Amino acid sequence: MELHWCWQCDEVVALFDEDEWGPLRERLDQGLRRERKARKEDGVCDLEEAYEDALGLHEILTGARPDDPRVIRHHRLAAFGPPCPRCELLLRTPSAELCSECGAARRRTN
């Protein structure tokens, strides 16, 4: 786990490496299935209840529980690019050519 700025959350968050992401993704997928089932059967869903396993693991890994468990899904480190050569924030995607924060071009190593 590494702390980085998340452009979607507009704050510094924990981004998970692949070893952490696998178990988290499994629990998020289980929560999504519970959420869909509850909404189909009852029309409503208690997100904290549906995603309890994912929230619990997130809390073990980070010490914090997000208000909306669904935001965890975009906190995978591999979904971001390398740090910007100028401002050092992570690029928004692995294939980004420009930093959307400061406009610097990505440095390529061949």
Report what the structure shows.
By secondary structure, the chain is an alpha+beta fold. The chain folds into two domains: 76 residues, no CATH class; 31 residues. It contains three helices and two strands; from the N terminus they run E-E-H-H-H. Strands 1-2 form a two-stranded antiparallel sheet. A hairpin with a 4-residue loop joins strand 1 and strand 2. Helix 1 runs antiparallel to helix 3. The longest helix is centred in the N-terminal third of the chain and has 25 residues. The protein is elongated, with a radius of gyration of 16 Å. The two termini are 28 Å apart.
Q: What are the SSEs and their pairings?
A:
Elements: E1 2-6, E2 11-15, H1 18-42, H2 47-50, H3 52-62
Helix pairs in contact: 1-3
Oligomer: single chain
Structural class: alpha+beta
How many extended strands?
Answer: 2
Instruction: Please tell me how large the radius of gyration is.
Output: 16 Å
Short description:
The protein has 110 residues and is of the alpha+beta class. The protein is 36% helix and 9% strand.
